[in-house]
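Journal club side-thread
Mid-discussion, someone asked how the predicted structure for our own chain would compare to the paper's figures. Pasting it here so we can look after the session.
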Amino acid sequence: MNNILKVFLLLSVFVGSNFAGAVIIVHKNFPADSISASDLKKIYANKMGQWAHGGTIIRTLLKKGKAHKDFCKRVKKSNSKLKRFWKKQVFTGKGSAPKTFKSDANMIAFIASNEKALGYVDEATDVSGVKVLTIK
């Protein structure tokens, strides 16, 4: 019985890590604690470019990974559609492409040094240098 419990606990650790989601992060001095799902989608659809408290939003994206896949689901666009959308925005002069990062650590370092930046990382990542927003 003891071995069955060990196997179950080991499997639950692997399954949990495979389905980790993304958390939305901003600079630690950001004046709000949450963001609406609607505003998040508008920001990444280039329909909202200014923060309510002032300043241009600096959009960021991870290049790949579980957090990126989860984020794409949240903004209701596949990775390929999101890339195509931003290429079109840049080509037509309607917007600047989001800053992209290869790792959660690079994303966190950028957001920690930019008060207007918005991004996301894997929920298992240490986010002590930034603020995590809840999605309402």
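Post-session note: The radius of gyration is 17 Å.
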